[in-house]
Write a structure and sequence with these properties.
The chain has 5 helices and 2 strands; from the N terminus they run ααββααα. By secondary structure, it is mostly helical. The chain has a two-stranded antiparallel ribbon with strand order 1-2.
C-alpha cells in the first residue's frame, strides 16, 4: 500500500510540474505597440453654416448682428442649410423672414426667397391672419352680413 501512495504522490507532483511547464510555453506574446498611423482618427471636413443667435419674428428684417457661424460636419448638415459666405450674408440681410426663426436655429435656402416668391408661406400667413381674428368678431360679421342681405 505504501508503494502505491509513493507512486501516486510522485505522479501527482510530476503532472503538476509538467502542467506548469506547458502553461509557461502557451502564454501569449505581448502585442507590439500600435503605430501612430493606426491611432489617428480620420479628419471629417467641416463647414460653417449660418445660424440665428436670437429669435427673429415673421416678416422682420435680418440684421448682420443676428447671423452667427456654426461649424458642422458636411455630412451632418442638411442640404438646405446656408453656408457662411459673404454672398449669403448679404442676401440674408436684404430679405425679410418668411417664418419665425427661433434662437440657435440654422437659416435654410427658403429664407433667401422674398416673401412674394414663396406661395406656401403666403398661404400660411393668410390663414394664420384669419385665425388670429377673434371668433366673436367673425360671428358678429356673419350676423351683420345676414341681416343686411335680407
Amino acid at each position: 500500500m505504501r508503494v502505491f501512495v509513493v507512486i501516486f504522490t510522485s505522479l501527482a507532483i510530476a503532472s503538476g510540474v509538467a502542467w506548469v511547464g506547458v502553461q509557461a510555453n502557451n502564454t501569449p506574446e505581448p502585442t507590439p505597440p500600435r503605430s501612430v498611423a493606426a491611432t489617428v482618427v480620420p479628419v471629417v471636413p467641416k463647414e460653417a453654416y449660418l445660424f440665428s443667435n436670437q429669435t427673429i419674428e415673421l416678416g422682420a428684417s435680418i440684421s448682420a448682428d443676428t447671423l452667427i457661424p456654426v461649424k458642422m460636419e458636411i455630412d451632418q448638415a442638411g442640404k438646405d442649410l446656408i453656408a457662411d459666405t459673404p454672398e449669403n450674408r448679404d442676401a440674408l440681410v436684404k430679405v425679410a423672414t418668411n417664418r419665425t426663426i427661433p434662437a440657435s436655429t440654422p437659416f435654410v435656402k427658403a429664407d433667401l426667397l422674398p416673401i412674394e416668391e414663396n406661395p406656401l408661406k403666403l398661404r400660411q400667413n393668410r390663414s394664420s391672419q384669419r385665425l388670429n381674428r377673434p371668433a366673436r368678431q367673425d360671428l358678429f360679421d356673419r350676423a351683420c352680413a345676414r341681416s343686411l342681405c335680407q
